[in-house]
């Protein structure tokens, strides 16, 4: 009886840990997803490419990275209060043109929530 109780407790702990990892995302999987973004963006340094650097993205007001020529729509979104956090990035990554109408970003978005969760986990490591 004790063995079954211990086995059940260990199983519960393992399931809880997997659920936490699923919610937080997988950084390695996010790095793979980021390859779609890396054509235009960089995350590990603060240099702009075709798109703005995503280094220290979390907490940044939209349209404000220095030395990047944002669209008027992205600047207006920032002026209106758009700040990049998990929720706003998730919406934007699903459909950039819906979240910020008039953005010049041509990426159509990510449709898989798991990919977005993993990408956010990857990007978070560059916002610390």
UniProtKB/TrEMBL annotation:
Protein name per the record: Cytochrome C
Residues of the Cytochrome c domain: 25-127
Top-level taxon: Bacteria
GO molecular function terms listed in the Swiss-Prot or TrEMBL record: electron transfer activity; heme binding; metal ion binding
Keywords, ordered alphabetically: Electron transport, Heme, Iron, Metal-binding, Signal, Transport
Signal peptide span: 1-19
Statement: the UniProt record of this protein carries the keyword Ribosomal protein: no
Coiled-coil intervals: none
